[in-house]
Specification:
Blueprint lengths: L1 E5 L11 H6 L1 H14 L3 H7 L2 H4 L2 H19 L7 E4 L3 H8 L5 H21 L2 E7 L3 H8 L5 E8 L2 E7 H13 L4 E4 L12 H12 L10 E2 L6 E2 L2 H10 L7 H10 L4 E4 L5 H9 L4 E2 L1
Parallel strand pairs: 1-2, 1-9, 2-7, 9-10
Antiparallel strand pairs: 3-5, 3-6, 4-5, 7-8
Helix pairs in contact: 2-5, 5-6, 5-7, 6-7, 7-10, 10-11
């Protein structure tokens, strides 16, 4: 069964989607619609930078979402997913691809999500770090020793991102290295995504999500908060509200999709981050 994956923050690059914008009228039309909805030319920043501007959460998230949905639009009739999933921000792209959200509503929610997350980050300094080379259980046990650090992204076996206060993540990092972690790498992010530090953002986004129309999905959407397939509009909405403060269960998602019949994964969006993670979960599956 053909499955599609949609990347999250961190996969952006200067020049993203410029080629498909120049070559395909259907993509140009979609991206110009996004420029009008956002009230500024996000395409200008996507194509030309500066890179520092593109890295800002309020620019990055709509840019990656737009690139991903443009590729779905470009695929046209050939886009027939058996199942979909998106990593963090990518879940919004997956919901548009599956017919659960309209493009317009998806873009508006992503813009509000990015703004709310940036405000939460500005209010209280916080951070994230990737823990490489330890099993999930060990990382969970060490995080439990701290009241301000949590597991945030279960990316693949041997790679779990932690999230929390700046001081807490630093102290937990020392404990994790002592426990045998090969590396604890601080991430260049605005704050502690997928942790209780995002509660103010979750509340703001919940209000926006409740005012947007969700439809029955055309195919199963494997959601971050439980790694399980959903097609019900109400279930998808509830899980999306929880997403900002809950961990991304990506390893579990890919395993469940494979168990449920996924034989190939196509990454739709900038970069190849998810393709690499899938291969680390299961070397045997086809990745495009």
């Amino acid at each position: 069964m053909k499955s599609y994956l949609f990347p999250g923050q961190g996969s952006q690059f200067t020049g993203m989607a410029k080629d498909i914008y120049e070559q395909h009228a259907v993509v140009r039309e979609l991206m110009e619609q996004a420029n009008r909805l956002l009230g500024y030319r996000i395409t200008e920043i996507m194509f030309n930078g500066p890179e520092q501007k593109l890295k800002e959460t309020e620019i990055t998230q709509p840019a990656i979402f737009l690139h991903s949905v443009a590729l779905v639009k470009l695929a046209g009739e050939s886009f027939k997913p058996g199942m979909v999933a998106g990593h963090s921000l990518g879940e919004f792209s997956a919901l548009v691809a599956s017919g659960t959200l309209s493009f317009e509503d998806g873009l508006i929610l992503v813009r509000q999500r990015a703004k709310a997350m940036q405000e939460a980050c500005d209010a209280v300094p916080s951070t994230m770090a990737a823990v490489i080379g330890l099993d999930d259980e060990t990382v969970e046990k060490i995080c439990a020793e701290f009241n301000d650090v949590v597991p945030a992204n279960y990316n693949c076996p041997g790679q779990l991102v932690i999230s929390g206060s700046v001081e807490g993540v630093a102290r937990a990092g020392e404990r994790l290295k002592a426990a045998g972690a090969r590396m604890v790498a601080p991430l260049k992010v605005a704050g502690a995504f997928h942790s209780p530090f995002m509660e103010p953002a979750r509340k703001k986004l919940e209000d926006a999500i409740l005012h947007v129309t969700f439809s029955q999905s055309l195919c199963p959407v494997y959601q971050n908060v439980d790694a399980l397939p959903h097609t019900s509009a109400d279930e998808i909405r509830r899980n999306l509200i929880r997403q900002l403060t809950a961990p991304v269960l990506w390893t579990q998602t890919i395993r469940n999709m494979i168990h449920d019949g996924a034989t190939s994964f196509t990454e739709m969006g900038p970069g190849k981050v998810l393709s690499g993670l899938v291969k680390k979960v299961d070397k045997a599956v086809e990745v495009v």
